[in-house]
Amino acid sequence: MHRSKSVGSSFWSDNCDSYLNTFTHIKRWSVDYTNVQPCCSTEKLVFNHYRSEEPVTSNMDISTGHIVLSYMEDHLKNKDRLDREWEALCSYEADPASTKVASDSANSRKNRYSDILPYDHSRVVLSNASNITSSDYVNASSITDHDPRNPAYIATQGPLPHTVADFWQMVWEQGSVIIVMLSKLTENGEAMCHRYWPEEGSDLYHIYEVHLVSEHIWCDDYLVRSFYLKNLQTNETRTVTQFHFLTWPDMGVPSSIKALLDFRRKVNKSYRGRSCPVVVHCSDGCGRTGTYCLVDMVLNRMAKGAKEIDIAATLEHIRDQRMDTVKTKEQFQFALAAVAEEVHAILKALPQ
Questions:
Q1: Of 59, 252, 322, 331, which residue is the least packed, with the fewest Cβ within 10 Å?
Q2: How far apart are CA 87 and CA 96, in angstroms?
Q3: What angle do CA 209, 140, 338 make, to 5 degrees?
Q4: What is the pLDDT of residue 11?
Q5: Beta partners for 204?
Q6: Measured between alpha carbons, how far is 335 from 288 in angstroms, rounded to an integer?
Q7: pLDDT value at position 235?
Q8: Whether the Cβ atoms of residue 192 and residue 250 lie closer than 8 Å to each other
Q9: Of 16, 219, 282, 286, which residue is the catalytic one?
Q10: Which residue pairs, CB below 8 angstroms and at least 24 apart, start in 197-205?
């Protein structure tokens, strides 16, 4: 099915702006490298002015892009249609949905929330020989896209004080080099995630030594940390980069779609050319984590030239692997708007 260019363009300019205006005004940044100031002796940098990343070169099918924009028009303009879509998603049940391992009494203290558990078939399995408690359990789920043998993401909870070593073991054994953190350590007085990295220098978590190499504060919305991760059993070392988004409230959405899209572009620019899973976490590894994975998976599929995109079916696919991903209708609506804004930007940049 082909849809003319004017349909998507007029939809975006005429209809989506009103929805996006419900979010806080988007800040614009420009880079001035003369204003990079070291803020302490451990190579922490503050970027006082920042230019957003432009959409990367894409193989997106133009007609598919306009069809997706038309889908957004239907759902962002028509509240009843969005409500029906969300109600259908809420009634969706994953199958299989066994959480026997996560529910075992020996593992219950490793779960931040008793009602958010990884499914047995998609849980990340640790090597118990290397584990500090001789356990293979961590509250984390492998999320695959097109290749079931190679997970695209690991969706996980924010580590607890006694699961930090498990977290780093998972990062090491899965070969991950990118961590996407979507929560603060505490929000409204409630612990969301234990600090799993040193504020300065190095800390040891069982057999994993983590050294903070640098911390770059790019803007009000996010910062980037670089770590050296060393396995003391093998003496191997790996560089791990953590992208930390700071302005996404629990059970809510970011105030700026543009800020999250800029953040995602930075993550993907760092990840380009790799095939290891990206570790994504918030507090429970479901709401914010699922929303980020949904946006990223849909946009990555489109960038690879997919001819058909079904966002609701994509969310069901993610929910087959991690329970309760995208927890609220507001988060689903935000995901639709974020995909639409990025598709619109890519279409503008493509030769017509």
A1: 59
A2: 21
A3: 105
A4: 38
A5: 209
A6: 10
A7: 98
A8: yes
A9: 282
A10: 197/225, 197/227, 197/242, 200/40, 200/42, 201/42, 204/232, 205/164, 205/165, 205/167, 205/168
Q: What pLDDT sits at residue 14?
A: 44
pLDDT tens profile 6-51: 333 433 444 444 444 443 333 323 333 233 333 344 566 665 445 5
Contact call for residues 334 and 253 (beta carbons, < 8 A): yes
What local confidence, expressed as pLDDT, does residue 273 receive?
87
Q: In this predicted structure, what is the pLDDT of residue 61?
A: 85
State phi, psi for 81 to the nearest 5 degrees: -65, -40
Q: Alpha carbon 265 to chain centroid distance?
A: 11
Tokens representing residue 7 in the block: 């349909």
Per this entry, what is the length of the chain?
352
Spell out the domains of the chain, with CATH numbers in brackets.
6-349 (3.90.190.10)
- Contact of 333 with 78, CB cutoff 8 Å: no
Establish whether 286 is a catalytic residue. Answer: no
The SS3 call for residue 261 is helix
The C-alpha torsion from 28 through 30 and 34 to 39, rounded to 10°, is: 40
pLDDT beneath 70, residues of the chain: 1-57, 352
Q: Give the CA radius of gyration of the chain.
A: 20
Q: Retrieve residue 49's tokens.
A: 């002015």
Pairing relationship of beta strands 190-191 and 278-281 according to DSSP bridges: unpaired
Question: Residue 205: beta bridge partners?
Answer: 208
Distances in whole angstroms, Cα of residue 166 to Cα of each of 22, 109, 143, 177, 317: 40, 13, 19, 16, 26
| 3-state secondary structure (DSSP) of residue 229 | strand
Residue for token pair 């005429």:
14
Secondary structure of residue 195 in the 3-state scheme: coil
- The pTM of the full predicted model, rounded to 2 decimals, is 0.86
The model's pLDDT over 79-101, given as tens digits with 9 standing for 90+, comes to 999 999 999 999 999 999 999 99
- For residue 32, the model assigns a pLDDT of 33
Token pair listed for 129 = 């020989």
